[in-house]
């Protein structure tokens, strides 16, 4: 019998007592059971650790110690992971449904590649900050990596062997865009990539990258120059396009949402609140 694919799911959290329960329940209630669940807590000062310990019997590793920020904690999670694939589902995020990992495993079995794909990605569900609206965000092709992250980081699934054999890690100097740096580095070593047309994560809008857009653009510029080896003119054109898109999103949000998203069916909104207290 062919062994089941094992997914290592890593959750990074700091002072997330209001959201961590939702994320944990989203993971441990997956119908697919060949998973390893790792929680890295940055020595939270609220009740985050207490909530995590309530699920200690269903979580493989819970680490609570001071770290140097989000990406340092994510690197710690990578070093602990023993699964075939790694997925980051950080505090406040959740899987799109309880069957997500089962659907992913089925897709892997049906893959046209002779071996399991080294990188898998899919669509996402974005939830507004007030929780009143959810939007379906289709992933761009990975061939648009030059433009930026082509789907949410939580909808990307990385083959562990590729990370370990090439010593890939999150560069903490990119405190906003390290996910872009990590993915760009990872893709350089991939020969088999699978895009899935299903949502993998539910992601709440308003993360750090949206609050630090100017610094984020600067870091992306450096990544395009260093990892993708793009020239200055090409980087300037890409940055100009991104600035225009950010302005449209900020001042003409309904127009942006109309072209970038589609309203989801109610089941996704129900999924996003299922595990709320």
Give a brief description.
The chain has 277 residues and is of the alpha/beta class. Helices cover 38% and strands 20% of the residues. It is globular and about 55 Å long.
Question: Mind sketching the topology for me?
Answer:
Blueprint: E1 7-13, H1 20-28, E2 35-41, H2 48-53, E3 61-64, H3 70-80, E4 85-88, E5 94-95, H4 100-109, E6 119-127, E7 134-137, E8 156-159, H5 160-165, H6 178-187, E9 193-204, H7 208-211, H8 213-226, H9 232-251, H10 253-260, E10 262-263, H11 266-273
Keyword list:
single chain, 277 residues, alpha/beta, Spore Coat Polysaccharide Biosynthesis Protein SpsA, Chain A, ten-stranded mixed beta sheet, 38% helix, globular, disordered C terminus
The number of distinct β-strands equals 10
What proportion of the residues form beta strands (DSSP E)? Answer: 15-25%
Helical percentage: 25-40%
The arrangement of helices and strands along the chain is: EHEHEHEEHEEEHHEHHHHEH
Average pLDDT, rounded to a whole number, is: 87
| Total helical elements | 11
What is the CATH architecture descriptor?
Answer: Alpha-Beta Complex
List low-pLDDT spans.
272-277
């Amino acid at each position: 019998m062919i062994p089941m694919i094992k997914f290592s799911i890593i959750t990074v959290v700091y002072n997330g007592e209001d959201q961590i329960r939702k994320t944990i329940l989203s993971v441990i209630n997956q119908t697919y059971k060949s998973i390893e669940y790792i929680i890295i807590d940055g020595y939270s000062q609220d009740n985050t650790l207490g909530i995590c310990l309530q699920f200690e019997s269903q979580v493989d590793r819970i680490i609570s110690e001071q770290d140097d920020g989000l990406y340092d904690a994510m690197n710690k999670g990578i070093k602990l992971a023993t699964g075939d694939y790694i997925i980051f589902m950080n505090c406040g995020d959740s899987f799109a449904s309880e069957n997500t990992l089962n659907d992913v495993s089925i897709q892997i079995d049906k893959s046209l590649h002779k071996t399991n794909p080294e990188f898998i990605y899919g669509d996402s569900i974005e939830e507004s900050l007030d929780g009143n609206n959810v939007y379906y965000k289709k992933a761009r092709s990975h061939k648009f990596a030059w433009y930026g992250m082509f789907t949410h980081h939580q909808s990307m699934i990385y083959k562990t062997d590729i990370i370990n054999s090439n010593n890939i890690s999150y560069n903490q100097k990119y405190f906003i865009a390290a996910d872009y740096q990590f993915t760009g580095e990872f893709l350089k070593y991939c020969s088999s990539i699978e895009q899935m047309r299903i949502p993998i994560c539910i992601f709440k809008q308003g993360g750090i990258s949206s609050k630090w857009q100017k610094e984020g653009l600067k870091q992306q510029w450096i990544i395009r120059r260093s990892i993708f080896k793009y020239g200055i003119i090409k980087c300037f054109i890409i940055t100009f396009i991104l600035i225009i898109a950010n302005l449209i999103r900020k001042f003409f949000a309904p127009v942006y949402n109309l072209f970038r998203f589609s309203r989801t069916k109610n089941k996704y909104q129900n999924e996003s609140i299922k595990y709320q207290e």
